[in-house]
Design brief:
- Helix 6 links the parallel strand 6 and strand 7.
- The longest helix has 18 residues.
- The protein folds into 2 domains: 220 residues, 3-Layer(aba) Sandwich (D-Maltodextrin-Binding Protein, domain 2); 91 residues, Periplasmic binding protein-like II (D-Maltodextrin-Binding Protein, domain 2), CATH 3.40.190.
- The protein contains 13 helices and 11 strands.
- The chain is an alpha/beta fold.
- The strands form 2 sheets. Strands 2-1-3-10-4-11 form a 6-stranded mixed β-sheet, with helices on both faces. A 5-stranded mixed β-sheet has the order 7-6-8-5-9, sandwiched between helices.
């Protein structure tokens, strides 16, 4: 079985799973339920800020019950969308593209952009160059997620054969500390945790690989069912995302993100880690269309997608101007 067929088969499995939940769920008191997904990463700061501040719940209003659910990586979010377990979610662009293509455009749309940048290849101190990674183990958060595609694309361009291990981010941190892996291509705050807590060294800053030194890290997607049956609630989530992006341009708002993250991870991260993580991000709802298409092209070249076509993935009803910009490292 060739590699392209194997990868496509793995990614198609979730798309073939039957939808087993109502597309218009209700609480016992008759109120509508809105189910929202996110990742406990600094790259999902708009979600973390919106949940911790209560802004998302307030935006939906008292007649809606908000159910928020955290995931380790984007592919699991897409599986939940396929199973009708989520109405909307923050996710990386590559899982969003995968879900769109595997469902032939029927499962989801991107309704807003949220965060850019914030991913690095961090390696053990003895690794001095890309060639030192040959035949070594390197971690990514999940097969086919945004950092996994970036890592595999970079290795291919460099002509390096390495073993890529899709691992949950906490496991990557543990194995890196034990010296069991040579490096990891991960999003914030995990890359900063590897540098600060485990004395790792940055070998590649992902933004340096992009023509304008900016790439999408987190986008907001909505299920086709939510777009069809509850567009008013999707609109409110899009507006809440924009409010969060504006708020996060002010460093004072990040305390709420840090508090939510501490609860999600079970510990408060060192301030040095958090400061470093935030410094590498750009908070913006600006549509990065060319970068989205490049992400699709890279995934197609690796065999994750049948084509690089993403026509129709952006939902035009919710397109809006740039909301805010944060800082970058």
């Amino acid at each position: 079985m060739d590699r392209r067929f194997t990868i496509l088969a793995l990614l198609a499995a979730a798309a073939l799973a039957p939808a087993c939940r109502s597309s218009d769920p209700r609480a016992s008191d008759g109120r509508r339920i809105f189910r929202l997904g996110y990742l406990p990463n600094v790259t999902h700061a708009p979600a973390l800020w919106g949940l911790e501040s209560g802004a998302i719940g307030s935006a939906l209003g008292p007649s809606v019950v908000l159910e928020a659910r955290a995931f380790n990586a984007g592919p699991a979010v897409i599986e939940a969308l396929f199973a009708s377990d989520l109405d909307a979610a923050w996710v990386g662009p590559n899982p969003a593209i995968n879900g769109f293509q595997r469902s032939h455009g029927k499962a989801l749309r991107i309704v807003a952009f949220s965060v850019a940048n914030g991913a690095q290849l961090v390696v053990q101190p003895q690794i001095r160059s890309a060639q030192d990674l040959a035949h070594r183990k390197i971690a990514s958060p999940a097969l086919g997620n945004t950092q996994d595609v970036a890592l595999r694309s970079w290795l291919s361009r460099e002509g390096i054969q390495s073993e890529v291990l899709p691992l949950a981010n906490p496991e990557t941190l543990l194995l890196f500390g034990r010296g069991a892996i040579a490096g990891a291509w991960v999003p914030e705050p995990w890359s900063s945790r590897l540098v600060v807590e485990q004395k790792g060294v940055v070998l590649m800053e992902e933004r340096d690989l992009w023509p304008a030194r900016v790439f999408p890290t987190s986008v907001l997607v909505a299920s086709a069912a939510a777009l069809s049956k509850r567009p008013d609630l999707v609109q409110k989530i899009v507006e809440a995302n924009a409010d969060a992006v504006r708020a996060l341009a002010d460093k004072g708002a990040r305390d709420l993100v840090e508090r939510r993250l501490a609860r999600e991870l079970g510990k408060k991260l060192p301030q040095e880690v958090l400061d470093r993580a935030f410094a590498g991000l750009v908070f913006s709802t600006e549509v990065l269309d060319a970068e989205l298409r490049k992400a699709a092209s890279d995934a197609h070249r690796l065999g994750f997608l049948e084509t690089a076509d993403v026509e129709g993935i952006l939902e035009p009803r919710f397109a809006g101007p740039k909301a805010a910009m944060g800082g970058t490292r």
